[in-house]
Design brief:
The protein is mainly beta and 147 residues long. The protein contains 1 helix and 14 strands; from the N terminus they run αββββββββββββββ. It has one helix at 3-7, and strands spanning 14-17, 32-35, 39-40, 45-47, 52-54, 57-64, 67-69, 72-80, 85-87, 90-97, 102-104, 107-109, 128-131, 142-145. The strands form 3 sheets. It has a 6-stranded parallel beta sheet, with no helix packed on it.
Length: 147
């Protein structure tokens, strides 16, 4: 496996944020991000297609395209893309779910729903197979990630 194919494999290039870490302000990464803990924001939150959250997630407007094992608490709206996987309770004032999304848990949605505050919880690591579509220039990449 050459250097180029390793750099395009999301299983190899994952920025990890470990339990007990605190980030104040913005964070950017050119690679996948894996959060082993809770994520709380007073703004918009986007979990991209390679993003993984192993903990609870709280924000005003939340878009999930990746993988979340934990409760999701959207103070306003939640958008779940067709590639998203959520395992946990979902609370939101409004929700949109694309065909193909996977949700496993309880869902409470509506203008009268009380969205709880973020509560930390311990989660067990769970391996997840990652498969990406290839392009004409690059073959499909894959691998297993766990936390």
């Amino acid at each position: 496996m050459g250097r180029e194919s390793i750099s395009n494999n999301p299983s190899v290039n994952i920025t990890q944020i470990k339990k007990g870490s605190v980030i104040n302000g913005n964070m950017e990464s050119k690679h996948s991000i894996h959060v082993a803990g809770d994520l709380k924001s007073d703004e918009k939150v986007i979990i991209g297609v390679h993003g993984e959250i192993g903990g609870n997630l709280s924000g005003i407007d939340i878009t999930i395209e990746g993988y979340v094992v934990g409760d999701v608490m959207a103070k306003e709206s939640l958008h779940v893309s067709k590639l998203a996987e959520i395992e946990g309770k979902v609370f939101a004032k409004e929700i949109s779910i694309e065909k193909g999304a996977q949700l496993n848990g309880n869902i409470a949605v509506g203008s009268d729903v009380e969205v709880p505050d973020l509560v930390a919880r311990e989660l067990e690591p769970k391996p997840r197979e990652v498969r990406l579509s290839g392009t004409d220039d690059q073959p499909a990449a894959g691998g297993t990630v766990a936390w």
